[in-house]
Amino acid sequence: MFGNLFEEDYSSVSSSQCGKGKKLKTKGLEPPAPREFTNLSGIRNQGGTCYLNSLLQTLHFTPEFREALFSLGPEELGSLEDKDKPDAKVRIIPLQLQRLFAQLLLLDQEAASTRDLTDSFGWTSDEEMRQHDVQELNRILFSALETSLVGTSGHDLINRLYHGTIVNQIVCKECKNISEKQEDFLDLTVAVKNVSGLEDALWNMYVEEEVFDCDNLYHCGTCDRLVKAAKSAKLRKLPPFLTISLLRFNFDFVKCERYKETSCYTFPLRINLKPFCEQSELDDTEYMYELFSVIIHKGGCYGGHYHVYIKDVDHLGNWQCQEEISDTDLNLKALQNEEEDDDPLMILKTILLQEETNQIPVDQLGQKLLKKTGISWNKKFRKQCGPLRKFLQLHPQMFLLNTDESTVSLLRNHFTQARSDRQRHREQILHTLASEPPGLSDNTNCPHWFDINDSKVQPIKEKAITQQFQGKESAYMLFYRKAKLQRPSEARANPRYRVPCHLLKEMDAANIQLQMRRAECDSANNNFELHLHLGPHYHFFNGALHPAISQTESMWDLTFDKRKTLGDLRQSIFQLLEFWEGDMVLSVAKRVPAGLHVYHTLDGDELTLCEAEIADGEDIFVWNGVEVGGVQIQTGSDCEPVLLHILHLEMSSKGSKCEQLVESQHVFPANAEVGTVFTALAVPVGIILTNSGESADGECWTAIPKEDMKKTFREQGLRNGSLILVQDSDSDDNSLLPRQGRWTSSVDELNWLQVKNFCQLESEEEQVQIAATKHTVVFDIRIKAIKELKLMKELAENSCLRPIDKHGKLLCPVPDACTLEEAEVKMGSSLGLCLGKAPTSSQLFLFFALGTDIHPGAEMEVIVEETLSVRDCLKIMLEKSGQQGEMWHLRKVDWCYEAGEPLCEEDATLKELMICSGDTLLLTEGKLPPLGFLKVPIWWYQSASLSGHCEIRDHSNCASSQGSSWGPAPTQGAPGPGPADVSLLYLGDVEISEEATLVELKSKAMALPSVSKLAVQSTALLRVWTVENKRPSRLLRTDWRQLKEYRLGRRAELCLEFLQKEEDLGPRDVLLRTRLRIPGERAYTLAMDLVWDTTRGWTAASLRQRVADFYSLPVEKIEIAKYFPEKFEWLPISSWNQQVAKRKKKKNQDTLQGGPYYLKDGDTIGIKNLLFDDDDDFSTIRDDIGKENQKQLALGKKKSREVLRAQSSDAFSSAGMPTRPRGPEASLSIHVASFR
């Protein structure tokens, strides 16, 4: 969102700011880049104006709005040239919008600027850097335009295009009197929370009625009393362009913070608003709307980025499909898939019809779907339809699965009918294609959609819109246009259509100016300034090259085209130097403090200057390649001259010492030994001290050990300008040091790293300390460590450094080219020198392990390309771990080092799945089900009433009649009356399609070997529950319902419960576990299933009456309570009272579905007979034990948190890093003066 924050004009930069011999080339002097292949222009982001750019592009691609604005001439709006005149009436905002739209249409530049427009808004630079809401901007901009256009022919522009009305009606049920109120709107705001999509939201707003009855009656003015009434709303007048704002930002009153609603919210490409309108007698075309713009928000509620998907109605841009297919196939697919793309039934049906045998393996069906549509089942249909296998199972009327559900085919009636329909449809297509003239069978009729993201414009396919239904990057505003609005043929692909003449002339002149500037810039950018240093005019002195005569005569400046070759450069120099004889060698040189040094020779006359990596202002040394002035020259970076400042005692001719230290400059090759200092000073032996210059109270001197005298200057860390002190070995330690100096005999006071040897495992672990700074390159540290550890030189080509964490685990290798600061290596930390090269920038270093029970440090390692697919990565890891077979899959380790979600898309690359270096993957046994399928663990659940448990009095362990294999599933804390009767036995896994029905799931489960021993006669005698926390959770009812409709998810587990007789639970039946309390004891009888019909409401009175009838007790002599096993608490239901809202004074509906009961299937209801037990207590002894255990657990957690809080507060206080408060939000406004 924050791109090109500062656009400065560098035309006023003084030449004195440029370096000697260099030319300052600034981006501000370059013309804007031309349009890309789409031929559409984006809009530059001023720092935080992406929301403005998205809305402006939407208005620009609304041709009717754009042309209505263009129709207003200077006689009505004035002229921008007159805006500074005192008496002129200039409507600046419409004029700047006109000019911006003309630039977007005609000016050949990649992106236009909104600087003039935002200036007309009265915005400052602070406002342009601040993020705002695009929905708020839409209303404010329309208001500013209406104000600016008062008194012109465009005064009703906004109302004409965007104004609609809503009518709210209240109908009296007694006298049928209608009270109505009309509201105007420019955009509709619809809810997102708890709504599946746009049509569902409109249905709730404009079809559903609110009924006033019971305690919430309506006062009718005609009847003059409280009566029953119905309130509704309808759309009375529809605008040509319908703007819809999605309420994705909400406020959490529990957490007291804002949040973004990222759930799935669908919206159609075409929508019929007839069901939501007051008048429905008009033709359907009056109600049909087509989507043409989607503004998308990426991020959270406190910040993010906007971009927009836009349909190019006038085909102004170049739009191309990614796949190149023939014209005939394109038309066939376009016609065949016109209604199939959004209908999974039709797509799967078409795929099966294309099979000769009308049968296909289910796992291959998903692959063929991916090839046909270009997108996998999971990405396109899973959110709405569930897994593929379940989808097939839930449509038995069309698809037929074999017994083991490995293959699928069409039922015979659908097969024959579809064959005839398809043949007839194909004949119609071929007839249509044959009648089309040549050249018309192309993409021109395809919807042309573009993703406009500030300056960037990319073509997209229409189906890409479905990816914006949900997530952090999702649709935020929708723009529809009436389908009957047709554009004239003259406007098609004609950006000059209806653009005013004065703007056409301005844009044409601007394009000519841009072409001239680009030609000049191209010439300037392709010319290099080279500095030629002539070898015959130099001599070698004091370790470097110096001019033998003046600098002016020794160096020539040459301007040369960088697109030419080295051969051309050599020929040009030959022509300039007529005196040259013999071979000519061109070498790259560089000025260093010691003088001029030659680095490498330029070879390959066919290479261009760019390919030879020659930079602007490069120094080129022209010589014979061997010697200069009779002295052989060493070249390369290894022997780069280093200028050192040496402090030493001045020697007299007789060898006596002077009383004064002198400083002299000496030049040494970087690859020379440190001991050569003695030779240069004519000193036989002595001590060399280096100065770190990093101490706060003075200079810090370090003595170089004798064994390091054979190290080179570069290995010792000496650079240009380094200061060293040379002292005789027999002199007093401090005699030559400054008085304020300190003696440092080791590297303890320097920054250092500890490098451990992990290359030779058979030897004892060795380690060395390497002096370094945060700017030291990792490569230098590695080479120095190899030498100090006295390892083989060959390791320099096949070794790497790896950080070691506090547990001793070797982490991801550090790239050689990085500095310690870039690699985030802290001083004083430990590194391991290991065999093997570090990964390149396009490679990933991954840890992997077998199984799900892993421990840090026990993983294996592998280096792979980031473009590798998950399938190929799995093969490499299996091969490296010595495993065989295909029954494996990969899972990513989550933040708590446990097995996370599986990597389901085996054809996706590691980069696409955002796998990074250092991540840990798990090789998990078991093949993942194909896309669209579920692999569901099946458990057997047996309640106490059937399993033969003893009566639930105060027994925490009751033996089951099924034998030792049965046992209570693990639960948290001591169980209450519910957990004691929860017995789960694992039966096996079932792999099934998400399209399968519930009865098909039961059939597959009955085929498991473990179930056959249980002698279940029929699927009708099985009840299916989901399993959460090792206990039944949600009842799955309706045998013919598809599994996808239950939204089970990939980690779903199910359990089967045996029934004594068949049951047929209706949609409003609730299954409850009821227990009768034993009088005089804190215990209950065995559970009995009770079916409660909630047709008349989820009221407490209705439930109490049903319980009383079930147990044949008087309703006034019972008390009932719901049990909460996680809290070990009972909540009496008979004492439930209606809650009254304070503001509306309206009673909430008497429902047990809501708080505080949240009653659902499988809940335990305790019943107390007041004839024998009038005690208010519902709890048991086991509840007391459970509460005590929870209390102790909470105290332990509290103590742990206090310890952690104390540690963290100490750390923060020592670091001194207070949290940064979030700044207040600023309001958005557009200032409209008196036509200024």
UniProtKB/TrEMBL annotation:
This is ubiquitinyl hydrolase 1. One of its GO terms (molecular function) is hydrolase activity. It comes from Mesocricetus auratus. Gene3D superfamilies: Cysteine proteinases (3.90.70.10). Residues 41-483 form the USP domain. Its EC number is 3.4.19.12. PROSITE patterns: USP_1, USP_2, USP_3. CDD domains: peptidase_C19C. It comes from the Eukaryota. It is an enzyme of class 3 (hydrolase). The keyword Protease applies.
